[in-house]
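Contributing new complexes? Match this layout with fe (ii) ion.
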Amino acid sequence: MFIHQYPLGPWDNFQYFIGDRDARVAAVVDPAWHLQSILDEEGRLDVKIDAILCTHSHFDHVDQVEHLLKERDVPVYMLREEIDFSGFRCENLRPVSPGETLRVGGVEVDVLHTPGHTPGSACFRVRDNLVTGDTLFVDGCGRCDFVGGDPQVMYETLRKLIDDLPAETTMYPGHDYGQTPTATLDAQLQSNPYLKLSTVADFVAHRMSGKTAGGQVPPKPDWSP
Ligand SMILES: [Fe+2]
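Output block (do not edit by hand):
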């Protein structure tokens, strides 16, 4: 099993390949910004892309899905909640349900429903690793002031992740906003200001104040390329 992280695009996005080295296949998570760069990573890793996983529908996470599908005829997995919310459509779109387990070669990928940034945001869990999209960043969390965002729901989502997952879980965020590209949940409990807020009221006030780090510029209203 491997998780390969690489930065791409002007918004400090991280994209990922989750793969099976023996089977030489991988899923690409959140293909956006530049198709050739994604194909170059595939070649460099010497794997074949056999699935596309989307943490959510914002265009900086999905705007190369259609282009990639022209090169690779693979399924596109997104939570049904996110598809319903956003109206996202593409060829080969496979709505998934919370708790579903996907397979990449011999690697199992659990789909966690983590609403708050959007109603159908997902995190992908592979053993003790969690690809978090725009739900949780190193020392930050996703904005909740876009359409479909909800800071109270985000608070519950983050609590649940902390309660349910082993402390040694390594998180792989959707943007490079922290001091380090990845971090363990244990370390984040010490340093992430959003995880230190112990009441929903404090969390909502802090997240919605507009003065805190860990945000991102607003997405285009339409996710289409
Ligand atoms: Fe986003």
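Reviewers usually confirm one structural detail per submission. For this one: Residues 56, 58, 117, 134, 219 surround fe (ii) ion (CB under 6 Å).
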